[in-house]
Amino acid sequence: MKLSHLDSMSRGAPVPRVGCFFILGALLGCSAEGPDQPDSVQTSGSTTLSSGVASTATSGSGFSSATNGNATTSGGFGMGNTTTGTSSNSSGTNAGAGGSTSAGESSNSSGDTTAGTGSTGSPFGSVSGTTMGTSGGGGTDNTGATNTTGGTGNPECDAVGFYVEGSSVYDVNCNEFLMRGVNVPHAWYTSNTQGSFRDAASVGANTVRVVLATGGQWSRTSGSTISQIISWAKENQLVAMLEVRDSTGFGESAAAVHPSDAVSYWTSNDVLSAITGQEAYVMVNIANEPFGNTESSQWSSFHQQAVQTLRSAGLKHLLVVDAPNWGQDWEETMRNNKNNAASSILDADPDRNVLFSVHMYDIYNTANTVTSYIDTFLGHGLPLVVGEFAADHGAGKNVDEGTIMSKAAQSRIGYIGWSWSGNSADLSSLDITNNFNVNSLTTWGSTLINGASGIAETAQTCSCFQ
User: Is 288's pLDDT higher than 90?
Assistant: First the structure.
């Protein structure tokens, strides 16, 4: 089934149009997705008719060292390359994003040698990893392979799972984790999920943001299905950010159910059972774009209560909160932390473990807009991820995806592209692959995966999989 995600959100006369997109085009407003829905959408300030089947629119300094046989390498600052040791000490001038890897000639080491930890100077990821040494011998290369992220390298680490500290995200090993991933539309294409995970991992992604449903609009994703989704993600060394869609654009989308529906879903017995104990591999995105434009004033108070309810139910996961205004935050409530709207959500959480997510579509069509948003929000000392973005938001609605990726790399924040496949014909430019085929990338998919600051260049596998 084709998805329709038409952008029909209007914010009033002085403000440009906004919206995420609708993958299975049923929600009204910004980024809803779903089966066939009514065609008309009432927005604030105006009424826009959406054509098509569905309704509208719509993550240092120091260096890491690794010993391999008798060769010791130490990586300095910058983007990672490989350093080689020959029975002596050698230093790599540019070890970095991938961590330092060593290849020792004439070494006599065997087994595994643990790499020293520390933050690299790369803007893309700090690395701490394990150097695997095969049996040495004259002329035999003992290559150290590192594919994990790093950060504090704290031997005293007692983290339960992902957590935030300042504007950074860390994993269960207390290593900094920078998300580089894709959105996968499980709720509407359930039979494609396992293959999509495998394919996303094959191109270097370290995170999948997975669309689920509470039953409020689409068929409920059961706890047993969530367990299977988590298993598939772990098999492919992908961190899973789980989110539900049924409240997208509440207040403007007639089909949306109140965001409290999402809270009830996460605390239901089967779902809670499925995610409990998976804190090292799973993040919980409370509700996708739960407020449109007309009810954005409820954004902070709702999430303050939501995080307390989820903690009381026993959730220890990193909680992800989408911005208001269909995730695009054009009113800058989250961006500017107006009336402590964002910081109050973090303060309300007894675990102080909340990550804020902005969805960057056609509002973010210039480098200045992208850069200003990220700099301003991080200036509050709060953590941020770009939970959705693409190269455009439909015909004539450009997005500065290049700046989003480069600025995310520079600022050490995560990004997750929308979406693996399945958008309607008029929004097929938002597909990363053609017909879920990893060997057929779209123009947008090629940019996201192979472009400058893209997934292939900047992603590192989470050290939680060590």
Answer: yes
Cα angle, residue 124 at apex, residues 195 and 466 outer, rounded to 5°: 55
More confident residue, 9 or 425: 425
**What integer pLDDT is reported at residue 229 of this predicted model?**
99
120 is written with which tokens? 């690299």
Nearest 5°: the CA angle 425, 427, 430 is 125
Per DSSP, 211 falls in state E
Per-residue pLDDT at 156: 83
Peptide linkage before 102 cis (omega within 30 of 0): no
| Selected catalytic residue, list 105, 289, 331, 401 | 289
Distance CA 108, CA 71 (A): 10
Q: Which of 176, 295, 388, 401 is catalytic?
A: 388
CB contact at 8 A, 58 and 5: yes
Angstrom distance (rounded) from CA 236 to CA 429: 26
Instruction: Give the pLDDT confidence of 365-393 residue by residue, as tens digits.
Output: 999 999 999 999 999 999 999 999 999 99
What does the pLDDT read at residue 154?
A: 65
**CA 215 – CA 26 distance, rounded (Å):** 14
Is 430 strand, coil or helix?
A: helix
DSSP class per residue in 309-322: HHHHTT--SEEEEE
Give the pLDDT confidence score for residue 52 in this predicted structure: 32
Is the confidence at residue 282, as pLDDT, over 90?
A: yes
Q: What angle do CA 97, 100, 104 make, to 5 degrees?
A: 155
Please give the average per-residue pLDDT across 112-125, as a whole number.
33
* CATH 3.20.20.80 residue ranges for the chain: 159-465
Q: Are residues 47 and 12 in contact, defined by beta-carbon separation less than 8 angstroms?
A: no
Torsion of CA 423, 458, 203, 199, to 10 degrees: -60
Assigned fold of 159-465: TIM Barrel (3.20.20)
Q: Is 388 tagged catalytic?
A: yes
- DSSP-assigned beta bridge partners for residue 165: 168
| Torsion angle defined by CA atoms of residues 149, 150, 154 and 157, in that order, rounded to the nearest 10 degrees | -20
Q: Work out the widest C-alpha separation in the chain, in whole angstroms.
A: 76
- Asked if 133 and 141 count as a contact pair (C-beta separation under 8 A), the reply is no
Amino acid at 429: S
CA 178 to chain centre: 8
CA-closest candidate to residue 129, choices 356, 461, 423: 461
Beta bridge partners of 65: 74
